[in-house]
Structure formats: C-alpha cells, structure tokens
Design goal:
By secondary structure, the chain is of the alpha+beta class. Helix content is 24%, strand content 29%. The chain starts with a strand and ends with a strand. Bound molecules: adenosine monophosphate and magnesium ion. Magnesium ion (MG) binds at residues 207-208, 273-274, 280, 323.
C-alpha cells in the first residue's frame, strides 16, 4: 500500500487537508470495498420505454422462434423422397392438394406421396411435407398438377421451429444495454416488459461564491459554472440520472442544508470545488457529519485531480471533485465512472485506444498518475500525439483533444519519441484533413470556415510561432502560422524558414498601444509619446509580452532601458494583454487592432505584424492544403479579414 504522510499544517484547515495521499489504485479499491457488493435496484419497463436501459436480469425465451416449421420461399410443400429422381430432362409430376397455404393460416390437409401444396413465404409446413421447392423450379402441368425439375433435400427451404431461438434459451444477458436490435428480439419472443436497472439518481452540486449559471450575466471576478453541466452530462452518459441542485455559495449552513437534502433524495452525491486549500473549503468537513463510514480518501496521487475526496455516507457514495473543470472530468471518468456503472448494472467502459508517438518530451510529477490530453495528427509513419499545452484550468482542451495518455506514477517524464497508448474520447480516430500548428489568430477561423463547411476537418494546435516551425520541420503539420520578426534584417518570417518549407503570405495585423478609452495620459499621442508619458508616471502599470514574441521586440525598443511597473507581467497572447488593460490590472500594453477593437479599448497604431504561413512543401499538393490556399486567396476570406480589422496581404 502506498501511503505518504504529509507534515501537518499550522491551522485547522491545513490539518484537514490531505493528511494521507493514496495511490489511485488504493483509493479506488477502498472506495469500491465500501460500496460493493450491493443489489442493483430494478424495475419492469415496457418495451417501448426500455431503449437505452440496462437489463437487470437474464431474459429467457418463453417460446420457440419461429413457433412452427416455416417455408422460406414461395413454392410448393413436398415430400423430398418423391423427387429423388427429378432432373431438368426427367421432371417428376405431382398432383396439387386442395388448399393454398398463406401466412397466418394453419394448413388443413396433409401432403401425401406424389402430391404438393402451394405455400407462400412464411406459411406453416403442412403435415407430411419435409421440404419446399421454389416456384421457379417447377412448371404447371394440366389443371391441378405441376412438374418439378430438381431433386429436393429434406429440410430444403424450411426454417424449423426454434431454429432462431429455442424456448428456454437465454435471449439476452443481464448488463446488456437495450438497443433497437434487442427490442426486436424481445418483441419476436412476445416479451412486452423487461426488468431493467433503475437508473442511479445522482445529485450534482457545484460550490463556490464565484459561480454564475450559463445564461446569466457574468459579474466581475465571477466565472461560469461549467462543472455543473459537464458532470451532469457525464453522469447521464454512464447509467446515472443527474439532478442538478445548483451552485451553492461557500457558506457552511447553506451548503450543509443543500447537501443533506440532495443526499436524502438521491443514490449518490457529486460535488465539485471546495476541496483544495482555501477559506471556502467546507464540503469535506460537512461530509464527516453526513453518515458512516464517511471519508474514504481525501487526496489521491492523480494529476490533475489530487484534491479528490471520496466518501460513503449511509451506504451512498459522496464525492467531491476538484474545482478545475478538466481535473473534475478526469477524476470523474477515472474514479467515479467505474463505481457509477457498477451501481447502474452496466459493464465497465471499454474506451477505444490507439498507439501514437509523442513528438515532444512531457515532464511529469513523480508519484502521481498523470493524465495528459492530446490531439492526434497523422505523421510520416503513424499517429502523432500532441499534448495540449493548457493547464488543468483549461476547459477548451477537452473539446479540441482526441483523447488522453497516462503517465505512470513512477515516471518523471515521457521522453520525446515515446510510443504511448492514447485512450480516445470517441469510438474512432478522426485524423484531421488539415493540420495547422503554430501561432493562433482569430483571422484563421475566418479563412478555414469554408473548409469546415465543405466537410474538411481542420485541427489548429496553438503552440506559438517557434513551436509551429519545429512541427513543420518534423513534417507533423501541413502549415505553420508564424509572425516572427528578425531583429537584424527587420523582416518578418522569411529569415526563419528552412529547407522544405515555403512561405505563403497571410495578412497584416496592426500592432499598437492599448489603453482604456478616455485615459488622458494616452489619448491623441503617438506610440513613442505615449510610452514616454507612461514611463514618466510612476503610478502607471504596463503589461508586457513574452520573450520571443515579435510584439515584445517593439515594446523593448520603445522602452529602451526603462523597466516600468508591470514589465515582468509577460502573458503569451494578444488577448491576455487586452484583458489586463480592459479589467484595470494594467494601464497600457501592446496588442493588435482587432483585439483592441473587440475589447473596446483605445488604440495607437505603431507597426504592422506579418502573419504568414510556413507551408510544408511535401504536403502542399494535398487536397485540404490546396483548399486552404484557395480559401486564403478568395475574395470572401479577404473581405472577412478586412471586416475583422486585419489587412489581407
Ligand atoms: P476550488 O477547489 O473550489 O478551490 O476551485 C478550484 C478552481 O476551480 C477555482 O479556480 C474555481 O473557480 C474553479 N471552479 C470551481 N468550481 C467550478 C465550476 N463549477 N465550474 C468552473 N470552475 C470551477
Ligand atoms: Mg471553490
């Protein structure tokens, strides 16, 4: 058993936190041991309402299907022995009996030797007959007779009673999810109702003073409650029936009341947030008052997801997922889904996996099982798995990723070039038609829009200009959008291209100083004057850009030796600069005109940045690359770019 005792903290909150970190396996084992075995509660469902339900017990066929020996073709019921000598040249004559057998009518007359009875497909085989000959292999002969030109083997064109399903045979096993085919089988056996697992009712509560429900206006410093929606959906995908009790503020009284009500009304309670260190982290303390045995694990060696808390109160699982949405989802899928499915009578999930090569080294924390979301692209020899560079706070990585890989707790990295098993989020890999790796720009979406409409899957992976160039050199993408300024030659992009890459001109983005409209320190000035004024005012705070950004070179030139307050705040995107100024964390920074406009900020233009594409020559002839280049040159894209504040080149 892997247990690590952590030093106790000073205050009471610290003392409550993560006294014991369990390994993923130990935590799951203890959680399951506290919950199972248990009965799967079931209910009878009418066939029409059973779609998607899980069978709670084996279903045995009460009848033979078909219930009688049945003809498979339109023709004549015969005794095969009569036709032993029949050939094309020596047809055998048979007298026709006095009836025609159709579906739904029981035959009245036996087939005696040297007679035949006309029979329709699905008609019951009459007494005496043991085969059917097709009408095509006969010809009329006189009024009430036929000639048969082929011999018939016993049982020919007959489906025997019970040959499809025999009475007493297990038709469907417990745990089967009922789909249209299963419904058809049940109906064929005359079964109108089946025992299904009652869906597990799972209460979902989000916690945090900062949470606002989607659809409501966002207050300053608030964020939208994404966990409530995503956790509820994931519960419904795995045999549960989620009931959302809303986002509850970090108030002990309110939260306890909500948790007690939710637990009383449900089979399971899933909370998110409020499990890491912080003043509002109350839920786990409340759990200790909700019933025995209480907390099973608080702190699991998972990344993301360490603060996960697993408890069982009065026989019901109570879980606190970490607050960050991706942490919440990974821990939910890894640790909660197995338990939920078992409670719902469902078999374990079987997610599809693929093997892919990891192009870059992925650092990992020793001692924690780490999940890394990846985007898959097609490389020269097999799939390549790009780790999505965003942290556990990033929700978009989920929708852009194709799956995830797991780094063992005992590894401190996954070296570049490793072969990794990727668990897919979808049943199959859909390799994108066009892969764009590099610096992202909102203008890119305007160019790729017609490709998406034409059914081409476009994958854009934002790793910055230099990361894009490296990927292009390795042949892992079709094109890399870049905006790199060469300080010496004062030119953009071309100096950075290596063999095998071709520069295709994109568009120009005007860079300039942003500030809050009406700020008299900047209104009406040139960029040089504005920066001088800002440096002269010691209360003025700037927001910088990261080292290596072309925009950073411009900022450094304007600043010279000056290092104003805010210089070390170096976000990596134009949008982050605009947000810092718009929200008053900084007074000025440098971004591009379309971003300034979208944030309604004042803007002093300075110099155009060239946003171009390094196209991998070996991939240029591909259909999707051609479609992209055509779209880039189209009037439609140029107009859309101009309209958004870019200057098509
Ligand atoms: P906590 O565990 O409550 O300290 O939350 C950790 C982080 O996750 C904080 O940034 C929270 O704002 C965020 N968070 C918590 N709950 C949610 C939620 N329901 N939806 C989105 N983010 C959340
Ligand atoms: Mg919180």
């Amino acid at each position: 058993m892997t247990e690590t005792s952590l030093p106790k903290g000073r205050d009471s909150i610290d003392q409550d936190q993560f006294l014991t970190i369990l390994s993923r396996e130990d935590a799951l084992e203890r959680f399951e041991a506290a919950l199972f075995p248990r009965d799967v509660p079931s209910e009878q469902r009418k066939l029409a309402d059973a779609l998607g339900c899980t069978l709670a017990g084996d279903v045995v066929s009460p009848i033979d299907v078909p219930p009688f020996d049945r003809s498979n073709v339109d023709g004549f019921a015969v005794r095969s022995a009569d036709l032993a000598s029949a050939t094309e040249f020596a047809p055998v004559p048979l007298m026709l009996n006095e009836e025609i057998i159709v579906c739904g009518a029981a035959p009245a007359h036996p087939v005696l030797s040297e007679t035949a009875t006309p029979i329709a497909t699905g008609g019951p085989i009459p007494r005496g007959a043991d085969a059917v000959v097709m009408v095509e292999h006969t010809q009329p002969s006189g009024v009430r007779a036929i000639e048969v030109r082929r011999a018939a083997s016993p049982g020919q064109f007959v489906s025997f009673a019970g040959s499809d399903i025999a009475r007493g045979e297990a038709l469907l096993r417990a745990g089967t999810v009922i789909g249209s085919r299963e419904i058809g089988m049940l109906a064929a056996c005359g079964i109108a109702e089946v025992p299904v697992a009652r869906s597990v009712r799972v209460a979902v509560i989000s916690t945090g003073d900062e949470l606002v429900q989607p659809g409501e206006p966002l207050r300053p410093a608030a964020i939208y409650d994404s966990n409530g929606a995503i956790v509820a959906a994931a519960i419904n995908e795995n045999g549960g029936k989620a009931v959302f009790y809303g986002a509850i503020p970090d108030d002990e009284g309110q939260l306890e009341a909500a948790m007690r009500k939710a637990l009383a009304e449900s089979d399971m309670l899933v909370l998110s947030g409020g499990t890491s260190k912080g003043a509002g982290d109350l839920s786990h303390r409340i759990i200790t008052r909700l019933g025995q045995p209480g907390i099973i694990a608080h702190g699991v060696a998972l990344k993301p997801g360490k603060p996960l808390c697993l408890a069982v109160c009065g026989g019901k699982p109570v879980v606190i997922l970490p607050g960050f949405p991706t942490s919440a989802m990974f821990t939910f899928h890894d640790m909660i889904v197995p338990v939920l499915r078992r409670m719902a009578g469902l078999p374990p999930r079987s997610d599809a996996t693929v093997t892919a090569k990891v192009p870059v080294r992925i650092a990992s924390e020793l001692g924690r099982t780490e999940f890394v979301m990846v985007s898959l692209v097609e490389g020269a020899d097999g799939l390549i798995a790009y780790p999505s560079g965003k942290g556990s706070g990033a929700i978009t990585s989920f929708s852009q990723a194709d799956g995830f890989l797991r780094i063992d707790a005992l590894a401190d990295q996954m070296p570049a070039g490793s072969e990794a098993t990727v668990t897919l989020f979808t049943p199959h890999v859909r390799v994108p038609d066009l892969v764009i790796v590099g610096s992202h720009c909102t203008g890119l979406d305007l160019v790729t829009a017609p490709l998406a409409r034409a059914g081409l899957a476009v994958r854009s992976i934002a790793v910055g200009s230099l990361g894009g160039l490296a990927a292009a050199k390795r042949g892992e993408c079709d094109l890399a959008p870049i905006h790199l300024l060469d300080d010496k030659t004062e030119t953009y992009n071309a100096p950075f291209l290596s063999e095998g890459l071709e520069l295709v001109t994109g568009w120009r983005r005007m860079q300039g100083i942003v500030f809050q409209r009406g700020d008299q320190r900047f209104e009406g000035l040139s960029a040089e004057q504005a920066v001088r004024a800002a440096i002269a005012d010691p209360t003025c705070i700037m927001v910088n850009r990261n080292q290596g950004a072309g925009t950073r070179i411009l900022i450094d030139r304007l600043l010279g030796e000056a290092r104003p307050d805010g210089y070390w705040n170096q976000p990596r995107s134009h949008n982050a600069v605009a947000a810092a100024v718009a929200q008053g964390r900084a007074d000025w920074g440098m971004t591009i005109a379309p971003v300034a406009r979208a944030s309604n900020l004042g803007f002093i233009p300075l110099a155009e940045e060239h946003y171009d594409f390094a196209v991998v020559e070996a991939r240029k002839r591909r259909l999707a690359v051609q479609a992209f280049l055509n779209a880039l040159a189209s009037d439609e894209a140029r107009a859309a770019l101009a309209n958004a504040g870019f200057r098509p080149a």
